[in-house]
Structure formats: C-alpha cells, structure tokens
Fold this protein.
Amino acid sequence: MIYLFRLLDKPGATELRRRLRPQHKAYLAGVAERIAFAGPLTHDDGEQMIGSVLAIDFASREVAQAWLADEPFTRAGLYAGVEIHAFVNLWPQKAGFPPAS
C-alpha cells in the first residue's frame, strides 16, 4: 500500500532542514525503489522549503510509522505537523513527472 506523508516544518526550521538534508536524502535512498514520488513543500516562490510530501510503498501503516520515526528530520524534531494517509493512485501522471521509459 502506498502511504502519503504530509510533513510540515516548525516555524524557523530552515537552518535545521538545510543542515540535515543530506542525512534525510540518504535515508530516503534506502527505500528508493518503493518511492512513488517525494519532494519538498515550498512557499509559492518555489524556493523556501516548508515541509515534505512523500508517497512510499510500505507493507502496513505500522511499518510506515516505524520508518518515519527513524527518519532524520523526524528524529531532530523538524516537523510541527505529521499526517500519514493510505493512498490509491487512480490517475496517470502527466504533469510534473517524466514519462516512463
């Protein structure tokens, strides 16, 4: 099942996010083959990061929650808000995603 993570940063967390980003990306690499999509949420300027959206295949909600609990941004207390939702993709991606090869 794909689980969608909507993760919003605490106010003033820009420096913490910048500092931990390499560790966060390395942690994501461990599940790279199961990522449907992932990336930062930003202000309308497309530059300033304010959170993350991740869609990753996990065997269960419990496994997804355990994975998130050990994620570097989570461990450092970056997030002010966390939502995890089961997700079923019913629409083929056209915008924002490269075509399948």
